[in-house]
Design brief:
Length: about 1650
């Protein structure tokens, strides 16, 4: 079989591309020749056997099929031909790079014509837009870079690279005639072939010319449609061919043009017969792979050639209806449909314009859309109610057509041709037809009696409305640009509205309303009884156009052309009014039985996404109607629709009625007549567009300071996704930068508060009351009165000028008067304070209006606005009723209206001001009597008033006090931890002061050795957080414990690839200097009784078990693993550390006379060790035959190996020693707990050493002094951890600890019993020191020779220090640079040089020559510093000697002070000299080690000192660099696929393919995602990642714990963008990144996760292990 394949291959390989090409060049019938070739070879190459080998196929296809074509095309070897083509090519300006999934794309908010215009990263970086306001997104794939497209950019269309390209010329100029002919021939044949074969539909027949003779024909009809294998083969090649064509045209723009020409050439069958047409039209029949291949080819050919792009656009537009219909029926996503190319075509302004005028594209799109929504009710309106699943599916798909319409309209025309006008209006007609089908859709009837059975469908209608919102706005924008178009559109719209309303009054009874002598005829209609719809797009469009009439001044210029006389104001306002009534009634709770669908509709009606073309336009329509009719009539109709007519027309009626409705009607009155919309929308008030947006922002910020993103969300976006906010925000707000957390906020400028309008029309009820509260508070803070009067408004434009008259209309005055009357007689009526407040606001508005009116008065003007006069007159209708002014005066002193007093006062003040103004201009006198009454009245009541106020003030104070204390209690509850910490800090700061107070003389403090400073131990009394009892920490008392969390750590690791392979057999005695896996202990510092903790833990455990059974939910902690939360601060813990008195005092006999020197001590120790070994061997061979050895044994003086020391600790302390020791062992080695295991004490020492090292590292990194800066919880933790580690040997097997000591010491002082110990290059000296010092008492306790324990400590310390110096010198990589010492050799330098020379000698001169002692001494000092600092911490916590004040600050002579504290000579080399005899031997033995030699010969690596501190990886400043990096990242497992969730490990910089099945692996028998798997190797279970696509930091710990954390990237507004939704440029915030790094270095990631999960329970439910 194998050989057969090879044989075929050989015969195929013999085919020569050149020869075939030559044959073709001479052929008379080229197509036939080529087809013969294809027919013969393709089935052979693509004969898919059982084992497809795509690479082999590709290779053969290139050689046999494509090769000849390339030869033919070039007329020579393509290896020469193509580069020539490329060189001769003058590439076009266009970049055209097709985006990969996840690739970053950039759009310029200043210059892009629309948001679909994007740049690739390379072009962006070389463009001017870098400096502009840009937006960054990640591409979903498809689409291409618009660099070089002059129509896509208002400015800077070229990047630096594409600017250089030549201007547009005929690309064919650069090709020879021959080449053009050949290219044309071969392209025509091959493109035709590809199209034919891809669109071939017959199953067992090949296209003519491709039949092969030797294939065995399967002639019998197949039941199962099995495609002929040859067809499959040809189709595979067809795809290959299209890709090839795409590549070939990349060489030359000329070739590209030829291909376009071939593709668009009409075939013999006329219309739609070009190859491009054929492909497009069979799009939905092709499989996905084929589609993307030819779409790509279209993009790189037709869309890249300016001439053919236009021709292609025409083909596309002509086929539009068919393509869209195919797409709607198709079941693949839009990105796989040719219809998706519309965005590439329609967004080009010139093409869009051309297609509208020449192909009537607007109409086509709208009609196509309508065709797909055939389901209508009897009135011809859309009906979504009874949609089947299929219809709903189609509806979703057909929505993309609206997007197309948006693309077409997005660029507005600058000049109009008659054609464009005509075609636009034709499209407008079609659009009106569409809106007509929406006018009144989904009507609702109030449900009475019982609830609706099924929530009616409402979403479809709103989806349609929402999608159309921008289109509707853009239609208006277009109309605004041309007067003729506007007039025509206005007429058309009115006509359609009339059609909609025909039959509107059918069957309705006319009724007559009358108030205050005014009467009006209307119909009887009740919103709560009849059908009402929230969808009125036609009315709303008309309202929009009406405003434009004013704005463009068409209304004044050509009134004769407008059908203004045909307008019937009552008809115009009818439906919008019903809609507002509906909202009011829903808010009043009258429609409860209609369920949630209605509530949702009302919500969206007001929502920022819809309101522009819904609520806003209804208000405008009411204003429009009002401006054209008698305000009294308007008001009566309005009252009638709100069911309030009776109340105001018959004065005594108002005893029982709907307060809410009155409130609402008043609110709308405020809004409609003088509020916002009419002044602040351009065209109605005399303002420009920015005033409107300023207004919105001012009112948003009146509620509270807001972040940029919050503001953006609260403001409407236009079709370009812009709110226009940036241009005005500076004027109204100040920006406050964020701190380490939180985000930047905008605060309202103080001078803008005067523009605050309490009844701003976009406020929801909740927003309104929040804003009111905030503004009143602000006023109180500024010691102003709390009146919130209406702001002064800009004047109205002439078309709407008559609006203000409503404020002084009789009916309005009647309403005001009635409500004030209720307030005066406040008992019998169902009035409310908010009602009064609104009336006061209305009065205030009228006064402002009048004041302005008077101030702007010029000679000719007549005062028409006389509100003040009218409110001074007593009422007429109910005889003898007082004037409005008089009632206000009464109310000013009403005790029940305290809150409104300031406002009433403001009104009266303004009233008087206006009176003065009038007097000055002496236009008309105001009755003076009223004013006098006011002043008299106020004097009378003055006294009583003051008393009453004092009483109110007292009550208020009391209430506030009560509230305060309640709040405080709350605060403490919520911030328990914070409080505790503050308290503790207070406590420790006092205890620390004691610590440093000179209980011992400060002259020279020594931490260890015979000269150790003596400290008198202070009693330590602590309080249990659980039972609150105090207890002293003593050897024999009940144990006190600290909550602690033990975890494995790789934070200090210098080799992340190293993991403990077999924990059961792992020997942790020696820590490698790579520190690849340590055990870290941390604590929150909270103290409990051991038994209190035990009880607490048992309770937690029991509770958890019950909870898990019942609810099956997890918690943030894993009880089965011994985890619990600190009962006080809820910090994650998994064990407890016992608190101990200083442990050394117990065994230390402080007799310092006549202590042995290092050599003597070592001799004694060696003898003791030897004795121990002999004894142990003897024990093992218990038969006692080794008598001669026993003879040899000469016990050193005072050494009593049979002595068993007594354990002085209380039982409970001993128990806790074991508990904590076992916990460290269990976590550190990841094994089952076993308190008997001999490695338990080693793990305890290791954790002590490792924890000290991490803390030293953090302090160094932060450039902080060693002491005096640790938070007290860390200080407490280190004290108890060190004491614990020093005491632990008392609960372990004595002989085991002795054995550990012997082996540890043997690594420095070799003996024959211990071999295979690591060489000194492979030992972390600090770990060695801690283990030696802490295991030494196990031997020392049997030594009664009178040597002090401190002496041993000192000798061990000196010995390890010397070993470390040698280690440093051996691994030092300092090069001797030119910088030589300034001073002549100091003593230290000379000594260092001597020592170095000795080392050189002992290592056989493998060490490189050094002549400068200065360099050596410098590297020793730098290298040993961390060790000395760690040792200082260690001995401080071990022996409790206070720290000299010099080490508590950073200073120049740190080194000397450390040496002094540690009982070391300043010249460390002296240690060698003092003990030269024994040291020479030892150094020699260290140097002669085989591993050391291998290192010096360069055969292995070793750590050099000082070890650099581990940091998180460097992140780029610009976030898009990361996105780009991630978009180039391929899933490592699934050969070349893009990763969906590329995730960056911040610890080591590895990019991972997260959250995906492809990269799941098995870990401890469970499937886990790439991140979890990575944490096990890289972070010992803890991981910090950046999810690049989401811009989110991910913390993981173990398999079940995780949380998301704010990324260290911020935009210019100080906000993060989790999920990359906003797309603002993001830059690295170094401080925030440092904070994350610190969390990591402090081992607080797990704790952080715990807190996050406690705060947000949903985090617990996430399957973190799958990330
Ligand atoms: Zn580009
Ligand atoms: Zn470019
Ligand atoms: Zn720009
Ligand atoms: Zn207790
Ligand atoms: Zn705690
Ligand atoms: Zn990593
Ligand atoms: Zn993967």
């Amino acid at each position: 079989m194998e050989t057969e394949v090879q044989a075929i291959d050989r015969s195929l390989l013999d085919c020569s591309a050149e020869e075939v090409a030559v044959k073709w060049l001479q052929a008379t019938d080229l197509p036939k020749e080529v087809y013969l070739h294809l027919a013969y070879y393709i089935p052979k190459i693509y004969s898919r056997g059982p084992n497809p080998a795509p690479q082999r196929e590709d290779m053969l296809a290139q050689h046999i099929l494509l090769g000849p074509m390339e030869w033919y095309l070039c007329g020579e070897d393509p290896a020469f031909g193509f580069p020539k083509l490329e060189q001769a090519n003058k590439p076009s300006h266009l970049c055209g790079r097709v985006f990969k999934v996840g690739e970053p794309t950039y759009s310029c908010r200043d210059c892009a014509v629309d948001p679909t215009c994007v740049l690739c990263m390379e072009c962006f970086l070389g463009s001017i837009h870098r400096e502009h306001r840009y937006r960054m997104t990640t591409s979903g794939g498809g689409g291409f870079c618009d660099c070089g497209d002059t129509e896509a950019w208002k400015e800077g269309p070229y990047c630096q690279k594409h600017e250089l390209s030549s201007a547009e010329t005929d690309p064919l100029m650069h090709l020879s005639e021959d080449m053009i002919a050949r290219a044309y021939n071969i392209f025509a044949i091959m493109f035709q072939y590809a199209v034919d074969i891809l669109t071939w539909e017959k199953e067992n027949e090949l296209p003519p010319g491709l039949e092969t003779l030797n294939t065995s024909r399967q002639t019998k009809p197949l039941k199962v449609q099995v495609m002929h294998s040859s067809i499959v083969a040809h189709q595979s090649f067809g795809l290959k061919l299209l890709t090839w064509l795409g590549n070939i045209i990349g060489y030359s723009d000329g070739l590209r043009r030829i291909l376009c020409q071939v593709g668009l050439q009409e075939g013999p069958d006329g219309e739609n017969s070009s190859l491009v047409d054929k492909l497009m039209l069979s799009d939905s029949k092709l499989w996905k792979g084929a589609r993307s291949v030819y779409h790509q080819l279209f993009m790189s050919s037709l869309l890249m050639d300016l001439k053919y792009k236009k021709l292609f656009a025409i083909r596309f537009a002509r086929n539009y209806e068919r393509l869209q219909s195919d797409y709607v029926k198709d079941d693949h996503d839009r990105e796989f449909s040719i219809a998706d190319l519309s965005v590439q075509i329609f967004t080009v302004p010139s093409l869009a314009r051309m297609l509208i005028t020449e192909e009537n594209l607007m109409t086509t799109i709208i009609k196509t859309f309508m065709d797909h929504l055939r389901h209508r009710d009897i009135q011809g309106r859309f009906q979504f109610e009874r949609y089947t699943a299929l219809q709903a599916f189609k509806f979703r798909r057909v929505q993309s057509l609206i997007l197309d319409l948006k693309y077409v309209l997005i660029t507005k025309p600058t000049d109009w041709s008659n054609d464009l006008r005509q075609k636009f209006l034709e499209g407008f007609d079609a659009f009106l037809e569409l809106l007509k089908c929406m006018q009144g859709m989904d009507p609702i009837t109030r449900q009475v009696g019982q609830h609706i059975e099924m929530e009616p469908e409402w979403e479809a209608a709103f989806t349609l409305q929402m999608k159309l919102t921008h289109v509707i706005s853009m239609m208006q924008d277009w109309c605004a640009l041309d007067e003729k178009v506007l007039i025509e559109a206005y007429k058309k719209c009115l006509t359609v509205l009339m059609q909609c309303h025909s039959g509107f009054t059918d069957g309705e009874q006319p009724i007559v309303l009358s108030i205050c002598g005014h009467s009006v005829e209307t119909i009887r209609y009740c919103v709560s009884q009849e059908k009402v719809s929230i969808h009125l797009p036609v009315s709303r469009l008309l309202a929009g156009l009406h405003v434009l009439l004013s704005k463009s001044e068409v209304a004044y210029k050509f009134p004769e052309l407008l059908p203004l006389s045909e307008l019937s104001p009552p008809l115009l306002i009818e439906h919008p009014l019903r809609c507002l009534v509906l909202c009011a009634q829903v808010h009043a709770g009258m429609w409860r039985r209609n369920g949630f669908s209605l509530v949702n509709q009302i919500y969206y009606y007001h929502n920022v996404k819809c309101r522009r073309e819904m609520f806003d336009k209804d208000i405008i329509m009411l204003q429009t109607g009002l401006s054209m009719m008698d305000p009294n009539h308007f008001l009566m109709i309005m009252l009638s629709r709100f069911d309030l007519y009776q109340i105001f027309s018959t004065p005594d009626y108002g005893k029982r009625f709907n307060t809410e409705n009155t409130n609402k009607v008043l609110l709308y009155l405020v809004i409609i007549f003088n509020g916002e919309k009419n002044r602040f929308s351009p065209g109605m008030g005399q303002v420009n567009a920015t005033d409107e947006i300023k207004r919105e922002i001012i009112h948003q910020l009146s509620i509270r300071p807001m972040a940029h993103s919050e503001l953006v969300k609260a403001l409407p976006e236009n079709e370009n996704k812009e709110t226009g906010m940036e241009s005005v925000i500076e004027a109204v707000a100040c920006f406050k930068k964020p701190g380490l957390t939180g985000r930047g906020l905008y605060e309202l400028k103080p001078e803008c508060t005067k523009d605050f309008n309490l009844y701003f029309y976009h406020f929801s009820r909740a927003e309104q009351s929040k804003a009111e509260e905030a503004q009143r508070k602000l006023k109180r803070q500024n010691r102003e009165d709390t009146a919130l009067p209406p702001p002064v408004l800009p004047p109205l434009s002439p078309l709407f000028a008559s609006l203000i008259n409503i404020l002084q209309s009789d009916v309005m005055l009647c309403i005001m008067g009635t409500i004030l009357q209720w307030a005066v007689e406040h008992n019998g009526y169902a009035w409310s304070e908010s009602m009064l407040q609104r009336v006061l606001h209305l009065i205030g508005m009228a006064l402002q209006e009048e004041k302005q009116h008077l101030e702007n008065l010029n000679e000719e003007n007549v005062v028409t606005f006389t509100f003040t006069q009218k409110i001074s007159k007593p009422g007429e209708a109910p005889s003898n009723s007082p004037s409005i002014l008089a009632m206000l005066e009464t109310l000013q002193n009403a005790p029940h209206l305290e809150v409104h007093k300031d406002m009433i006062r403001w009104i009266l003040k303004t009233f008087n001001a206006i009176k003065k103004l009038r007097e000055n201009s002496s236009t008309s006198p105001v009755p003076e009597t009223e004013g006098n009454i006011i002043e008299e009245g106020s004097r009378d009541k003055d006294k009583a008033e003051r008393k009453r106020k004092a009483e109110i003030a007292r009550l208020r104070r009391e209430k506030i006090m009560a509230q305060m204390s309640e709040m405080q209690r709350h605060f403490i509850d919520e911030n328990k931890e914070l409080f505790q910490q503050t308290l503790e800090e207070l406590a420790t700061s006092t205890s620390r002061a004691l610590d440093n107070s000179p209980t011992v003389s400060d002259t020279k403090l020594t931490a260890l050795g015979p000269k150790q400073t003596r400290v008198t131990e202070q009693r330590q009394v602590v309080t249990c957080i659980l039972c609150q009892e105090e207890q002293e920490v003593k050897v024999d008392s009940r144990a006190m414990v600290l909550a602690a969390f033990v975890q494995r750590s790789t934070v200090l690791s210098k080799n992340r690839n190293k993991v403990i392979q077999d924990p059961e057999k792992y020997d942790p005695l020696f820590m490698h200097p790579e520190l690849s896996c340590g055990t870290h202990t941390g604590s929150c510092g909270h103290i409990m009784h051991a038994h209190c903790w035990q009880r607490y833990f048992d309770a937690v455990q029991a509770k958890e078990q019950r909870r898990q059974q019942r609810l099956r939910v997890h918690t943030s902690y894993d009880v089965e693993n011994g985890e619990f939360l600190c009962p006080l601060c809820e910090c994650l813990s998994n064990t407890v550390i016992p608190l101990l008195p200083p442990p050394r005092g117990l065994f230390n006999r402080l007799d310092f006379s006549d202590q042995p020197n290092l050599a003597q001590w070592m001799r004694t120790i060696s003898q003791q060790i030897k004795a121990l070994y002999i004894l142990r061997e003897e024990e093992n061979n218990s038969c006692g035959s080794n008598s001669e050895k026993m003879d040899e044994l000469q016990l050193p003086k005072g050494f009593r190996p049979d002595f068993q020391p007594k354990n002085l600790y209380s039982e409970s302390i001993k128990e806790m020693l074991t508990t904590f020791g076992t916990a460290i062992y269990k976590v550190g080695l990841k094994v089952h707990p076993n308190e008997e295991d001999l490695r338990v004490p080693i793990m305890c020492w290791g954790s002590c050493a490792y924890t000290i090292q991490t803390i030293e590292q953090i302090l160094t990194d932060e450039n902080k002094p060693l002491f005096g800066n640790l938070p007290c919880r860390q200080d407490d933790c280190l004290t108890s951890l060190t004491r614990f580690a020093a005491a632990h040997w008392t609960v372990s097997s004595l002989s085991a600890v002795q054995g550990h000591f012997c082996r540890l010491l043997a690594s420095l002082v070799p003996n024959e019993k211990n071999e295979n110990l690591p060489c000194i290059l492979d030992i972390d000296m600090f770990h060695l020191l801690v283990s030696l010092v802490l295991s030494f008492p196990a031997i020392y306790c049997q030594d009664f020779s009178g040597v002090s324990l401190g002496t041993g400590d000192l000798h061990i310390f000196h010995l390890v220090t010397m070993a470390h110096i040698v280690q440093i010198l051996l691994t030092s990589s300092t090069e001797e640079n030119g910088m030589d010492q300034e001073n002549p050799n100091s003593e230290e330098e000379a000594a260092a040089l001597t020592l170095y020379k000795f080392l050189c000698q002992r290592t056989g001169s493998a060490l490189k020559e050094m002549s400068s002692g200065w360099h050596l001494w410098r590297s020793i000092k730098a290298g040993i510093m961390p060790f000395l600092r760690c040792s200082a911490l260690f001995f401080h916590y071990l022996n409790g000697v206070p720290v000299p004040s010099e080490i508590q600050v950073t200073g120049a002579s740190q080194f000397e002070h450390l040496c002094s504290y540690l009982s070391l000579p300043n010249n460390l080399i002296c240690l060698f000299q003092e003990n030269s005899k024994i040291m020479n031997t030892l150094v020699e033995s260290w140097c002669s080690n085989n591993e050391v030699n291998r290192y010096l010969e360069g055969k292995r690596q070793a750590i050099s000192y000082a070890r650099e501190s581990n940091k998180l990886i460097d992140l780029p400043d610009d976030y898009s660099c990361l996105i780009n990096q991630a978009s180039n990242f391929l899933c490592p497992k699934s050969g070349g696929d893009k990763s969906r969730a590329p995730t960056l490990c911040l610890v080591c910089g590895t990019m991972l393919c997260s959250q995906s099945y492809c990269c799941q692996t098995e870990l401890e028998g469970e499937d886990v995602g790439a991140c979890t798997a990575h944490t096990y190797a890289c972070g010992s279970g803890v991981g910090i990642f950046l999810r690049v696509r989401e811009c989110q930091v991910l913390f993981l710990a173990g398999k079940t714990k995780g949380c998301f954390y704010a990324p260290p990237y911020l935009d210019d507004y100080g906000e993060t963008d989790q999920g990359l939704r906003r797309g603002n440029p993001l830059h690295l915030c170094k401080e925030r990144f440092k904070k994350i790094q610190k969390l990591w270095q402090q081992h607080s990631i797990t704790e952080e996760i715990g807190h996050a999960q406690e705060a947000n329970q949903t985090l617990v439910g996430i399957d973190w292990q799958h990330l």
